[in-house]
Amino acid sequence: MTTIEIDRETGTRPSSRSVDMKLEVVVIPVSDVDRAKAFYARLDWRLDADFSSGDDWRVIQFTPPGSACSVIFGRNVTAAAPGSVRGLYLIVPDLEAARQDLLDRGVAVSAPFHGAGDLHAGPDEPYLFGSARVGGIDPKRGSYSSFASFSDPDGNGWLFQEVTTRLPGRVAGDATTFGSTTDLAAALRRASVAHGEHEKRTGGHDENWADWYADYIVRDQAGQQLPS
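Below the sequence we write its predicted structure tokens.
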């Protein structure tokens, strides 16, 4: 008989290996299902499902472009109050481009902002906390540092967060994956610019440019020191 010890403080069981747990769906509460469906369709998110069972139950699923996680809403899907969800982060490689895309679709979105120190909660954004909030994109264009916000018709709050270089450990092992062709293209452009500087420093054409690109992109995704 095997005894399984449980940590007395955390209530967790020690494990020699982890089990993959992929966040699949986030539930958002809405008051008018068709109005919400029209809004998220206007964002050009992929409609995955619209199922119903009579008048008592309906579920709709949308997936943002390049996302592995979807959102669902509907009738009798959640007991949460409509509009009560805040702090839904959408990671984008270019904040200005993401904002302009929403504006072109007729969706209201805030001006860019960043934190001077930590982030400060605005009256409609209690999920942002801290001591100071400054208008405009982060002057140093630091990854994870620039934001913009928007809401769906019920007031569920979304945030764009610009991420260009991942922190260490955010990419498992040496595997390099991209959520969309846009993300891959952005990584290739960054590698192209950096490789051009590399060739200037080395004074000639790099015949092993493919290997250099591969090394750069893997390190870029893993948040490691980039090749020079």
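Confidence is low (pLDDT under 50) at residues 1-6, 118-123.
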